[in-house]
Amino acid sequence: MKKYIQYFRLNMINQLKYPVDLLSGILDKIIAAAASFFLWYAAYSDDRIVNGLDINQILIYVILANLITFLFNNGKDREIAKRMKNGDIAIDLTRPVQFQIYTVMRSVAESISKFCLFAAGIIVILKIVYRSYLLNDLLLTIAFLCSILLGICLQAEIDFCIGILSFWFINYWGLSIAKEAVVEIFSGALFPLELLGGAVQQAAGFFPFQYMLAVPVYIALGTDPSGTAQSIMRQILWIAIFHLAGAVLYKKAVKRITIMGG
């Protein structure tokens, strides 16, 4: 376990070596969040309640959704696909660590470093500005932070599974674009799931994507319809499901690599 913790620490430090990349990503999300903020404010400033959410809750949702999306943009699925295609996966097989755990921990380390360097400060500012709407007690704050961490882990496990699937696809680009589109819609990254309508919102409940983003935001707002404890348990369940699925897919991929490579 110590070697995985060491990899985790080194990846967090590695994030600080490329401040320009980090700052450009931060600037990109600030612009996107600002654009979304003013768009939603202009659209719903006259209607104080929209599908059970008032305008302040919607604005907080938009900002937090952009922040969490910023944490998710690691591109590990594309990195895995590239390594599978060019044969660098063979190097990973020689490492004294499990490739799946190593990849997931790298992704989580990068996300946590982004959170500590940027997102945490924005959340504090939001709490000051929207004091009565956000994180109204200590337990809710702890649950929110746990839910964000679980959402990051779930995103990393899903990306690992999608990346491994590239072994069976000639053109991974289409699969990656389809994944990103589905995740953005059903995770609530573009807009609150309440605005999708009853049927679509109900369908979204059968997918894991809302547990990546929408659920942590709902917990922060204190509006989680399923209850905080139940939602966190479902996050853990989805992480376990995708971890097992990733392990099975990786095992099958390695067998094919071994056979084809002699």
Automatic annotation (TrEMBL):
Membrane-spanning ranges: 20-43, 55-75, 115-133, 139-170, 182-204, 232-250
Presence of keyword Transmembrane: yes
Organism listed in the record: Candidatus Eisenbergiella merdipullorum
Protein name: ABC-2 family transporter protein
Coiled-coil residues: none
Alphabetic keyword roster: Membrane, Transmembrane, Transmembrane helix
Pfam families documented for this protein: ABC2_membrane_6
Alphabetical list of InterPro entries matching this protein: ABC-2_transporter-like
Signal sequence coordinates: none
Top-level taxonomy: Bacteria, Bacillati, Bacillota, Clostridia, Lachnospirales
